[in-house]
Amino acid sequence: MFGPEASGLSNKDLSFSNYILQIPTSLKFKSLNLSHAITIICHEIFKALEKKKIKKISSNLKISSKSKISSIVTHLTKLLDEKDFFTPKEKRHSMILNINNLIYRLEPNDKELRILASIISSLSKK
Predict the structure, then answer these.
(1) What is the distance between the alpha carbons of residues 23 and 31, in angstroms, rounded to a whole number?
(2) Are the CB atoms for 110 and 62 separated by under 8 Å?
(3) Global confidence as pTM
(4) Residue 63's beta-bridge partner residues?
(5) Alpha-carbon distance 109 to 64, whole Å?
(6) Rounded CA separation 120/76 (Å)
(7) Is the bond preceding 108 in cis, omega lying within 30 degrees of 0?
């Protein structure tokens, strides 16, 4: 994801990302043209692939889809709401963003997501 040139990505957008990177810039010019930023990132990815630096630890395990992860986060948020976890209420939004950050950056595969869902469901039982 790339954000608007004027403001960048919102905290909500960032909470759904697996990785966050920032391109170092001059203190005098703190922003980049969006097309330039994309070009720099693509070039860095190309260099890394050429050097075979990017390797997945378990290439046979595929990361779960964002929709599956989102379903778990939504279910967890609902359960936490029922338990009045989000206190004070005005911090609810930022707490949910933190939960999103935590779970999305884990990059769980389907098996790990099922385990997490089972844990969440078992904790919700009365």
Answers:
(1) 9
(2) yes
(3) 0.59
(4) 109
(5) 5
(6) 7
(7) no
